[in-house]
Input
Amino acid sequence: MLTVALACTFLFAVSTSDAVAGVTRTGPDAWAAPLLVGSAVLFTVVAVLNATAMSMAERAEEIRLLRSVGTRPGQLTRMVFWQSLVVTGAGALLGTSIAAASLAALGEAAVGELWFAFSVPQYLALVLVCAVSGLVGGLASTRRARRGPLLAG
Output
């Protein structure tokens, strides 16, 4: 999520400096910043999948224990879903806070007020990509423990 904050900060910093200078980018300049942001988002997806998978894989024994005391696989799926969503949401809030603070400082330096140019659809798309990555990582990594044998083997 912090990488998303970095990506948002970079993309919106370029937008802010262009807006202040009255610059409209064309040609390769128009797609260079989104390309860099896209590579940061790709890195974020891989990092989120990896971190979530490692975190949930460590909990396989706990999941098996819950199954052995009667928790149904559907209940475990909902539990993992909500846990992944809460962790992803907390990361998004933290990342957004860091990005907003640094962008406000940039706006203060550029125009003398706490202002920055940003795109709500781009931001929401970045958050959605991270949320889906977290959910996929959590559910995929616990699938075997949720549905497989109760004894580790």
The CA atoms of residues 125 and 131 lie 10 Å apart. The mean pLDDT is 76.
